[in-house]
Amino acid sequence: MITVEDLRVTFNVGNRQIHAVQGISFDVAAGETFGIVGESGSGKSTVLKAIAGLVQSTSTALEVNGRAAAQRRSRADRRMMQFVFQDPYASLHPRQTVDDILREPLSIHGVGSKDEKVEAAMADVGLQAIHRFRYPHQLSGGQRQRVAIARALILQPPVLLMDEPTSALDVSIQAEILNLLARLRRSYSLTSILVSHDLAVVVHLCDRVAIMQSGRLVEIVTADALQGGTATAEYTRKLVAASRGFQRSNA
Amino acid sequence: MSEAPASRRQAILGNTYRAVRTILVNPAALAGLLIVVVLVLAAVFAPWLAMGQTPLRPDLANRLAAPSSLHWFGTDELGRDIYARTLFGARVTLTIVALVSVVVVPIGLAVGTVAGYFGGWIDTVLMRITDIFLAFPKLILALAFAAALGPGIENAVIAIALTAWPAYARIARSETMTIARSDFIQATVLQGASTWRILFRHIVPLCLSSVIVRLTLDMAGIILTAAGLGFLGLGAQPPTAEWGAMVSAGRDVILDQWWVATIPGLAIFIVSLGFNLLGDGLRDVFDPKST
ipTM strictly over 0.95? Predict the structure, then answer.
C-alpha cells in the first residue's frame, strides 16, 4: 500500500544543511497500522510530512496505493491521504465553525449531500449535534481532535497519517482518542502510519513499529516484540527501558 | 439565540448578536458607533435636515451672519448657511472615506497576502514597491498627486488611496506569514485546496479583521488628509461644501467670525474621534475568543 525507499530530507538553515532523514525504507501493507517511534529530533515527524508532501524530499521510490507520490500532488492524489496533526489547537481554523471545517474538504472535491456527510462524520467520531456550529475555541482539546479526525476521514481516504495525535491531550482524553482511532481504523479499513514518542500508544495501535534515531532507521520490529522486550537493537532496548520510567531496582 | 444552534442561519444570527452586544456594552465603542451612524444619516437625509436652507445659494446681504434661529450655525463669507453646508459636507466626507476604503483594502490585502504566502522573489519585489510608497511623506505625496492630476474629489481619493495602501499590505503580509505556517493551512493544503482557495477563503478572512480595525483607525487620518487637500484647494472645488475647504474659507475671519471655521472644524474633529472609538470597539469584536 505504501512503499518508501531510501527517503532523504535535507533542510537548509542559513548556510548549514541539516540531514533530517538519511535514507529510510519501509513498506506498509494494506490495512496495516505502522508505527514510527524515536526520541525528539529523530526525524520521525519529518518522514510523515515527506510522505504527505509537506516537505521536499528525495527517494528512489515513494508509492502510495500503487501510485508514485510526486512532489507536486494533484487533487486526486491529496484525496487518497489525509493527515491528523499533533496539536488540535493549531490544526483548526480559528474563525470557522465545526460545520465550515467539515464542509471544506467536501466542497474542494465537489462532493454532494454535504449536510448528511457532515452529520455522519460528526456522529462517527462521537461529536454531538450541538457542537456543529461551535468555533474551535468553544471546544475542549479532545473535542477539537475529534473534529480534526472527522475532517481527515470525511473524504474516506484509504490512507491516514497521524503525527502524535494524542500527545497534546490530557491523559484521560488520550485513551478515548486512541480507542476512537482503533475503532475507525477497522470501520474504514484504513492503512495508517502513526508517529509517536509514546511506546505505549504505538504498541496499542500498531502492528509493526519502526524505531528511528538521528534520521536513520534503527530497526523494524513487531509490536509484540517491542512490548515483550525481545527487540534486537541495543538502542531499542534502551528506549523501552526509558519508557518504563524510573525503577527502584535499577537505582 | 441558543448555545446549541440547530441551523446555520441560527448560528450566524447568534454570532451577529454576540458581536453587536460586544460593541453595545462598551461605552466608548457605542459612542463611536453613534457618531458614525449620525454621520451616515446626516449625509443621507441632508436635504430634509437642512430646514429649508441650501448649501450653495449665496445671500450677499446676509454674509458672515452670527448663529441665529434662522441660520443655526451662521453664514459664511458668501452668506451661505453653514448648517446646511456642514450637513452636505458629510456627503463629501463619506464619499471620500468610502471610495478610499474600497480602493485601499483590496489592493493592500492582495499585495500583502500574495507576498506573505508565496515569499521568495515575489515577496521581495512586492515589498520593495511597498517600501517606496511608504518612504514618501503621506501628505506631500497626496499633494503631488492631487497637483499633478488636477484638483477634485476623485483625484483627492486617488491621491489618498495611493499613499494609504502600503500600510495595509504590510499588515496583511505579516499576518499571512504567521498564518501560512500554521497547521490549519497545512491541513487545507493536504485536503487538495488550490492556492487561491487557501488565500481567499482561509487567509484573507483572518487578515480582514486587523485590516478593518486599522481602516477605522485610519479613517480619521483619511478625513484629515481630505480636509487638508480641501484646505489647500486641491480637494473638492468650490462651490462644493467640503469641511476642509470650509475651514480654509473661514481662516481670514477666524477672530471676528469664529463660527465660519470652527463649525466644520468641529465636524472633522467629532467624526475622526467617532471612527477612532469605533475602531477600538471593533478590535474587541474581532478577537475570536471574546465572542
Answer: no
